[in-house]
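[audit] Reproducing an earlier prediction to check determinism. Same input, same settings, fresh worker. If the tokens differ from the archived copy the diff job will pick it up downstream; this log only records the rerun itself.
[audit] input (128 residues):
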Amino acid sequence: MIVAIIISSITGFAVAWVIQMLKMQSIQKELKSTEGMLESEKLIKETLRKENAIAFQLKETVELDFAKKLKEAEMALRIMDEDILLLQKNNEETEALLKAGQPEIHQLKLKLIEANNSIARYKAQLGK
């Protein structure tokens, strides 16, 4: 009877040991799977961080380029406005000189401008 108790104890211990070993193997497989998933998530996170940094740099570059082009356009507009003002002043001075010194040439100039405007209107009407 004592032998049966010892044999059943050893058998129970062996069965319990096998069950524990199987559970341990299952847990180790899950641990490896979880570690692999964690590593994959870390790589994805690192990749996204790098892509985000690149996108941010690109955004900054585009904004700087846009600001530079905007300043150039504003400068060009300012220059064009100044040129227009100078042309208007020059035209007014020329017109005043012509009107004062040679009224006939001034009248011919006005008629030429009117003729050019009429021609432009006719061309626009034909173009439609």
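[audit] rerun output stored. Observation attached for the diff report: The longest helix spans residues 2-101.
[audit] end
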